[in-house]
Amino acid sequence: MEKWNILKSHDLYRPQAWGDGYFDINQSGNLIVKPEKNGHSIDLYELVRSMVARGVDAPMLLRFDGILKNRVQYLASAFKNAIAEFGYQGSYRPAFPIKVNQQRHVVDIIRQTGKENLLSLEVGSKPELLAVLAIHDTPNALLLCNGYKDAEYIELALLSSRIGRRPIIIIEQFYELQTVLDIAAKLGIEAEIGLRMKPASKGAGKWESSGGEQAKFGLDTHEIVQAINHLKRAEKTQWLKLLHFHIGSQITSINAIKGALREGTRMYTEIAKLCPSLCLFDAGGGLGVDYDGSKSNFESSMNYSVEEYARDVVSAIQEACNEASMQHPDIITESGRALVAHHSVLITEVIDVSASLGPVAALEEPPSNHPLLQELRGLYNGLTLKNCAEALHDALELKERILLGFIQADLSLMERAYADRAFRHLIAKIRKTSLDLKYQPEEIEKLDDMMRDTYFCNFSVFQSLPDSWAIDQLFPIMPIHRLLDEPKRRAVMADLSCDSDGMIDHFIDLHDVGCSIKLHEPTPGQPYYVGIFLVGAYQEILGDLHNLFGDTNVVHIDLDENGNPEINHIVEGDTIREVLDSVEYESSDLLERLHISIEKSLKMGLLTNEQSKSLQKRYREALDGYTYLVV
């Protein structure tokens, strides 16, 4: 057989398919990151090694600032080219909905990179408004105010116009309109508002239910007419600047987008006839990310490119406005996922492996002449290509009889242990032999599920990959080194949590969703690192403290003027003290209670002075340590 090589690793893990030009494999067999796609690269394995040498342990989240910058520029360029191609008369204003990733450093990079395109920030709550109101200082850039709004929210948004901000208060519930009118009158401020329509058109993919007529937010057609009439009575129709709609996140099919655009652009032109001040068309979010690299309408992919998306948005609004003989509006899209997903990589280290037993040259003799054990051994020795399916049926039936025999005390512990071992050997031999069949029955193919190793990894699914646990979201996963060697183990990945759901057992596969991933045999004494990719959207902020595993270490990396990796920012992961404090276990109280217990044990002679000192020292050190394992 041909020796394993880089091409084979490419075929297996497909980083060029899902990586969108940002990830590749170098000649050393390590994964590399190319923040500018065609520019300098960073050896991911060497980067991780250098961070560990500095005391930044895995799990760690690596954020590549250059990818963030490139994504902002890439999206703006796609729309700029589409506008030039069609001769569109308006401009494009990218918007970043900060709910996708509220981390300050991420928001700052996006904001600074997008200044030349007047990048807007979108907020959906009062805390998010407070987060960006003070920092979003790009002249004439929009501050899009969505979400549920009370009087304080609206007053803050309106007052921000007095310090150079340009807030657009988007009416998503009808009652909000009167509140805006009342507070604006009290403050003596002329507001700018938008209307969020509730489109009948729905998206496609996991989040399609967030759009459509039953969506949580938005005004139906009747409410839109009511809102316009309400503005007319208040003589404030000139306030209306923007129409917004949203059909869901991660839209997998371009046809769903086209359908929503036909409805949205028609609504825009009708409203603009009644309110000529309307000048902004906000197509919302939904621009997908090709998580599995299949370029299909599968829920973890997308069957269109960013360029196609931009052309369809531009051409749709242009066609509608030309037919209505009206001015082209400026176009806004809120493409948060597409901007930030690629820039973050979670690095975890394999700390242990629970192996399923593979086939051996010959099965050893059973510990007794028990008929069930002899029958099982006979199945193993008599297996042929022709009787694979029959042997499987017999083996499954025999397994039940063996269990019943053990329960009824007909089999000893040693005999049961041998039977379990022999059964796993037999299943592995059936699967291996069946590979030569022209047609493999589905029941034999499913044996792969019984032969998976469990790789225990130093991270928490609930903290770092909540979408993997909650909605079976697929993320690209692969080792970041040893890619010149063949990975021979079929594995699932278990995290550190004491929860059976703390596991990744669904993986990207070329033809379907895989139930396992190929990984290498860990080498004793050497770390084995696995990367989980495209985790920059939603995962950090949605993560929870299950088992009190906190935020991981975070490292921001960029390229210096010579193309070498440069560490811009390190955010240390949560300490145990910080996590305990967050759930009201104050460390001072814990230390005092420990001291009381130690004093009692000293008096009772259960603890020596040296042991007391050691326990208190270890306890204090642990409080200030990482919530994850230090390997």
What does this structure look like?
This protein is an alpha/beta fold and 631 residues long. Among the domains are: 88-334, TIM Barrel; 371-448, Methane Monooxygenase Hydroxylase, Chain G, domain 1 (Up-down Bundle), CATH 1.20.58; 577-623, no CATH class. The strands form three sheets. Strands 4, 13, 14, 15, 16, 17, 18, 19, 20 and 21 form a ten-stranded mixed β-sheet that branches. An eight-stranded parallel β-barrel has the order 5-6-7-8-9-10-11-12, surrounded by seven helices. The longest helix is centred in the first third of the chain and has 22 residues, at 65-86. The chain is globular, with a radius of gyration of 30 Å.
CATH topology of the domain at 88-334: TIM Barrel
- Could you give the count of β-strands? 21
Helix content: 25-40%
CATH class descriptor of the domain at 88-334: Alpha Beta
Strand proportion, as a percent range, falls in 15-25%
Structure annotation, total helices: 22
Radius of gyration: 30 Å
Largest sheet: 10 strands, mixed
What is the residue-averaged pLDDT?
93
